[in-house]
Amino acid sequence: MAWEDEIVGPDVASAGLHISERIGKDVAAQLDLDEALEASRYASHPYSSFPKEWPPLVEVVETRELPSLLIERYNASGGEGTALCGIFSEIRRAWASVDNSLFLWRFDKWDGQCPEYSADEQAICAVGLAKSKSGIFVEAIQYLLVLATPVELILVGVCCTVSGDGSDPYAEISLQPLPEYRIPSDGVTMTCITCTDKGRIFLAGRDGHVYEMQYSTGSGWHKRCRKVCLTTGLGSLLSRWIVPNAFKFGAVDPILDMVVDNERHIIYARTEAMKVQVFDLGENGDGLLTKISEEKNLIDPREAQYGGRRSVGSRAVARGAKPTIVCIAPLSTIESKRLHLVAVLSDGRRLYLSTSSGGTNSSIGGSFQRPSCLKVIATRPSPPLGVGGGLNYGTMSASGRVQPEDLTLKVEAAFHSAGSLVLSDSSASAMSSLLIVNQDSSVQPSLSGNFGMTTRSTRALRELVSSLPIEGRMLTAADVLPLPDTVVTVQSLFSDADAFAGLGEASEKPSGKHWARGDLPTQHILPRRRVVVFSTMGLMEVAFNRPVDILRKLIESNASRSQIEDLFNRFGIGEAAAMCLMLAAKLVYDAGNLSNTVSEKAAEAFEDPRLVGMPQIDGSTGLTSARSPSGGFSMGQVVQEAEPVFSGAYEGLCLCSSRLLFPIWELPVMVVHGNIGRFEEGVILCRLSVDTMKILESKIRSLEQFLRSRRNKRRGLYGYVAGLGDHYGSILYGTGNQGTGRNLFGRQTRNADAGDGGAGSKRQRLVYTSAELAAMEVRAMECLRRLLRRSSEALFLLQLICHHNVTRLVQGLDNSLRQKFIQLTFNQLVCSEEGDLLAIRLITGLVEYYIGPDGKGTVDEISEKLREGCPSYYNESDYKYFLAVECLEKASVTVNAHEREILSRDAFNLLTKVPESADLSTICKRFEDLRFYEAVVRLPLQKAQALDAQGDAVNVNIDPGQRDNTLALREQCYEIIMDALRSLKGVGQNGKPREFGTSRLSTVPSLDQASRDNYIQQIIQLSVQWPDASFHEHLYRTLIDIGLENKLLEYGGSDLVPFLQTAGRKPLQEVHAVNVVNSTALQGSDMRAPIVSGQAKYLDLLARYHVLKRQHLLAAHVLYRLAERPCTDTEEAPTLHQRLQYLSNAIIQAKSASSTTGSISLSRNTVDDSLLDMLEAKLVVLQFQIKIKEQLELIASSLENMPGGNESLPNDFSPRSNLVVEDEIARSAQEKAKELSLELKSITQLYNDYAVPFKLWEVCLEMLNFANYSGDADSKIIRETWARLLDQALSRGGVAEACSVVKRVGSNLCPGDGACFPLETICLHLEKAALERLTSGIELVGDEDVARALFAACKGSAEPVLCSYDQLLNGAILLSSNLKLRLLRSVLVVLREWAMSVLAHKLGTTAVGASFILGGASSREQTAAIGQGVWDKISSLANRYMTEVRRLSLPQNQIEPVYRGFRELEEQIQASTAFQPL
C-alpha cells in the first residue's frame, strides 16, 4: 500500500497516544539510586555475572606500552625521581611527568607523537587541565595545562588541530607557553589540581588549604594571574607569611584528591587522614568557595551518628586493618537526586553520601538545595571474589557471607563513573586483577512467593561483576569519551528530556553521564563504553559489551538456539525483541560495521514465534481473580475481562519507538533565545541541531523501512494474517469493522478503563480467535509504523526549515501564531491538526522565500524536496497553491497591466481547484495589491463553502455549539472580503480612519476616489451574486458599519429587506400595492417591543430603501415604527423632536402614497386616508407631549435654582417653606420628564398622569379641545379647568396675566360651539376679579383690559363676546350694581372695537385708521361702502345699553361716563351714516 493511500490521521493519533503512555510509564519506572539501594537490603543476589558460554561482558580492546621517550627518561632518573601520571579524556591524551618534564601522548592510538614540556629546574608536583575562558586567549587555545612546582604555578596553552578529513578533532596538539601567566607558589607544594566546566582552577596544597588560580587579560593594577587561598582566615594568613614552615609544629592533614560536581557546583576533597570535605561554589558555580562540612570516621561501621542505612554486610567484614578511602566520585543527577557522592574503600565497599540535611529529594522547584552537611546514606557490600567462572543467582546474599581475611579485597586504586566501578585488586599474590562492576539490566526471576519481597527484589540494585588480569599495578583510569559530534548529539537530545523526565535540570552535561541511564535505553544512540586503564606496564583499553553487543556476538558466532533463548529469558522477551529489531534495522551506534548476515538473522529471531511468542488472551487474571486467598471461590468478586496480550515482537517495537522518540516527544520543537519572558523580542530557533535531527530521522526511517519491507514481503505475522482472507486483511488495513470496544493496542492501554462498571456487575469476557489476535497486533504495528513515518517526515521538515533560517520564517507570523509555534511539541506536530496547520504555515513561508525576490529557486524545486522528504505535510493541493503563489510573485513584478491580469487569472484558476488549502489571509492580500478583486471575493466564499459543505451554519437541528463553531469558521473567511472593503473605504477594523488601500507594489498605480468606488461596487455586486444568506448578512452589516449605506441600498440583493427587518427586530411582511392593510395592526405587540439604537439604524435604512423604491406606504409604516419605538435607556432613546421628525416624514410618505394611487381600488384609498389621519393625530399628541416635557423640565429647574421657599413657583405652585417638599416635586418632575423622553404616551396618559398632577391647565385645555369634548359633563370639566387656569394666572400676575392667558389660549381653541371656550364663565370670572382687585387697590385694572382680551381671544369676532355679556346682564345670576356697571363699560369697549374692526375691514385699513374715520368727517365714498345693517345693529345695542346704565342705582358721577360713552358711540354712528344715500 502506498503511503498516500494510507489513513494517516486516526492511525497516527492512536499510536501517538500509545507512545505517550509508554514514555510516561518508562519515566515513572526509572528508579533513583537511593531507592534501588534501599530495596537491595532485602535482595538475595546483589551481584551476578553472565553465563560462561556468553561473550564476556568486558573485553580488552587493545593494550599499548608507554612511550619509549618516557621510559628512557624515567630510567635515566634511576627510578628515584618524582613521577606522576594521569589521563586527559577531554583531549584524548595520557600524560606522565618525570621530575620537571611532562609528556603527552594519545591513549587510543599511537601516532608517534609525544611532546615534552619542561618546567625549568623544579620537579612537577601536580598537573591539571582546564577549559580556557573565552575572551582571554586566542581562539586556538582551547584548553590550559596547569602545572604546579614547589616554587611556581604555570599555565600552558593547549591547541588542538583537526585531522584533514575532519574525523579526528584531536589529531595533533601543540603546547603554547604563556610566560605572563606564571606566579609563585609562596612555598606551598600543591598535591592535586581540579577544574570546573566553567574554567575555574582549584589547587589543593600540602598545607591542607584550597587555592584558586585566577587569570584574566589584566588591566591597570590588576595582575593577569594570581593565587588566592580560599580556606584560611586572617590569622592563619599572617602566620603563613611571618612564621616559616619549619617552625609550624601543628598537625597538617594534606588534601590528596579533589573532584568537582559540575551539575550541583560542589567540590569534594579527600585528605590523608581519611576525611571528606565539602565546598560550595554557589548556585551557578561562580560564587566564592565556601567550606560546608568536614567529616571523619565515615568508614567506621560502629559510628551511628550519621543515621545512614548501613548494609548488613558492613557488620560481617572480617576484622583486620581499618579500610581506607581510595576513591571519591560525584554522582550525577541522572543516577540520584538525594545521593551526591560515592566513596570507594580499600576493602571494596562503597559508601553513598548526601549533602542534604533532610527529605528524600534534594531539589526544590527545579533547582538543587545548596549543600548543608555530609552524611552516609547507604553502604554497598564489596563484590565477591572468584567471578571468573560466572556468578549465578543464589539464594543467599553475598553481603551476608563472611569472607575469610585472605579472600578480602585489597583495593589499591579505583575508578567510579556513571554507575560503573573499576577496582584494582591485589589480594592475589601472583598477579593483580581488575574487578569491573556495572549495572545489571537483565530481568530478575521471582524466587519468592511473597509479593512484597518480589516487588522489592525487582527494584533492587543488581550489578554484574567481571574480572580481568592486569600486568603491573593500576595507577588511574578514565572514560574514553565519545567524539564531539556524538557528544553534541547526545546533549542536544537529552538535555531537555532530562528535565521532562525529572532527572535533572535542562543543562549541558558531559556525554559520559548519560551512560548512567543504563544500557537498554541508550544503546541505540551511545557507542559502546570504553575505559582506559593506566598501569605501571602501559595502557589498556577496556570495552563494555552492552546487551545488544552480547546478542550480536552470539549471532556472529552461530550460537546455539538454547543460548539465544537464554538471552530472551534473561532480558525478557520484549527487551530481547527490541535488541533484535535494533540489529535488524541497524539502529545501533556503529551500524556501519554491522553485516547483513547478522541483520538478517536478527530479523528472523524477531519474527520467530518460538522466541517472541504469539498474541494471546491473558486469562490468568480472569481465572484467578475470583479465587479467594484461602483457595475457595468468592461469589462477591468481579470476574475481570480477559484482555489480548500481544507478542514480544510488538513489545520490542514499542520499546524501540518510544526510546527513539523520548528525547523529543513531549518537548517543544522550538526555543526562544534572548528575552525569554517576551517571545516577541527573542530569537526563535530549533531546539535540536540539524545534525541531531538528521541522525534521529535516519534511525526512525531505518526502523520504518524495515517494518515496511517486512509488510511488503509478508513476513512474520503479516504473512500469517494476509493468508487468512479479506476479513482479517480489512482489520490489518483498518477498513473493516473491528467490533465495538476492542482495544487496538492490547492490554497496555486498558488500565485506564479498569474501573469501568460497578463492583456488583460482572462483565462478559470477550473471546478472540487466534486470527483476530494476530490481525489486531499487525494492525497496531502498522499504526506505529505510520507514526514513525510521520515522525521522520516531521524531522525532515524541521531540518529544511532550519536550513532556511527558521527565525526569518517565523517572523512572518503574527504574535498568536508565533506563541502557538513556540509552545508546539513534537507530539502535536506529528499527531494533531493544529500541528499540521502550523506546519503548513511554515511551508508557506519557506516556499515564499524560495520563490521571492531574494530566493534562488522555483516551486518545482522546493516541491520536489518536500514531496520526497515529507509527503504527508505536502500534497498535490499544496503544490497547486504554491504554483499560484509563484504566479502572483511574477505578477507583482510585471509592469504590463494585461500580463499582470493574465497571471492573476492563472493564479485564481489554480486556487479555485484547492480552495480549502489556500492561506487566504495572505493570498487575498496579494490579489488586493494586484487589484484583482474577483479572487478576493470568490476564494474566501469557496473556502467557506468547503469548510461547511453540509450547511451546518444554518442548520437549526444540530447542536448550537457545533453550529456556532462552523459559523465562526465561515466568518473568518468572510472577514477577508470585509477587510478589502475597509481598505478601499479607508477605515480600520474598529471603524477608525486609516490610509486608503494603496498597493504595496510599485508596478500597480495608486487609486483615486472614482476607482475605489468602482472596486467597491464590483465587490458588492460579486458578493450579492453568491448564494450564501449568512455571508449576505455579514456583508450588509459591514457595509452599514463602515458607512457604505448608499452602496448597500443601491446594489443590495433581494434579501436586503428581510435582513433589515430582522436586524431591526421588525418582522414586517412586505406590503404590495393591491393589499389591504389594517392600520390597527401597527399597534400590535411588536410595535411596543424595545429597539436599541443599534437596531434603529437598520429600520432607518429600511425606510430609506422603501423611499428609494417608491414604496411610500411601507416607508410610512417603518417611519412610524421608529417614531413609536419604546426605549429603556435615555442614552439610546431618540429625542422627542427626532420622533416628531419621524412622524412628519411618515405623514409625507403617507400623503405620497395617497397621491400616487391612481387607479388603485377605493379600499386602498380608504386605508391610506385612515393611516394618514392616524399619523396626523399622533403628531398632534406628540406636540402635546413635547410641551408637557418642556414645562416639567422648567418646573424642575426652577425649584432647583430657588434659594428659599417664600417665592411663588411657576405654574402657580403655592409658596412652600419646606425645602424637602420642593425637592420631591423637582425630583418627581425630572422623573416624569425622563419618562416622556423614553416613549410616546397616549393623550389620556398625558392628561391624567402628567398635565393634571402638575397643574398644566393650559395644555389640559388644548388636549380637551383636541379630543372634542362636549356635553354637560364635559362642559363642567372645561369650565373648572378654565377657572383653575385663570386663578393660576391671577395668582401669578394678576388680571393682566389672566387676560394674556385668555388671549393665548382662546385663540388656539374653537369658540364657535362654546364647549372648550366658555365665554360667559371666563368673562364673569375675569370681571369679578378685576372689580375686586381694583376696589381693594391690589391692582390697577383698566376698563378695557378684560373686554379687549375676550375680543382678541375670539379672533376679532365681537358678537360672541357681546352675547356673553348680554347673558350676564340679563341672566338669572344676580349681579351687583358695581359689577353691572363694570360689565357695561366692557360692553362699550366691545361695541367700539366692533365698529372699528368692521369699518377697517370694509375700507381696507387698520383699526387705528378706522377710529379716525369713525370719529371724523368721512367722505361719501367711504361710508357708502359700509353695510347699513351692521351700523343699525351697533346703534341699537348702544341705545339699549344706555337704558341699562340709567337703571343702575348708583351715583350719577359713576354712571354718567358710561352713559355718555354709549351716547357718543350712537351719535358717531348716526353721523357717519347721514351721508349714505337712501
Automatic annotation (TrEMBL):
The record's subcellular locations are:
Nucleus
Q: Does the keyword Nucleus apply?
A: yes
**Keywords carried by this UniProt record:** Nucleus, Transport
| Presence of the UniProt keyword Nucleus in the record | yes
Residue ranges annotated for the Nucleoporin Nup133/Nup155-like C-terminal domain, each copy included: 647-1334
Q: Name one GO molecular function term.
A: structural constituent of nuclear pore
Q: Which GO terms describe its biological process?
A: protein import into nucleus; protein localization to nuclear inner membrane; RNA export from nucleus; transcription-dependent tethering of RNA polymerase II gene DNA at nuclear periphery
Recorded hits in Pfam families, A to Z, give:
Nucleoporin_C, Nucleoporin_N
Report the residue ranges that make up the Nucleoporin Nup133/Nup155-like N-terminal domain in this protein: 54-477
Q: Choose one Gene Ontology CC annotation of this protein and give it.
A: nuclear pore inner ring
PANTHER family linked to this entry: NUCLEAR PORE COMPLEX PROTEIN NUP155
**What family is this protein classified in?**
Belongs to the non-repetitive/WGA-negative nucleoporin family.
**Name of the protein described by the UniProt record:** Nuclear pore complex protein NUP155
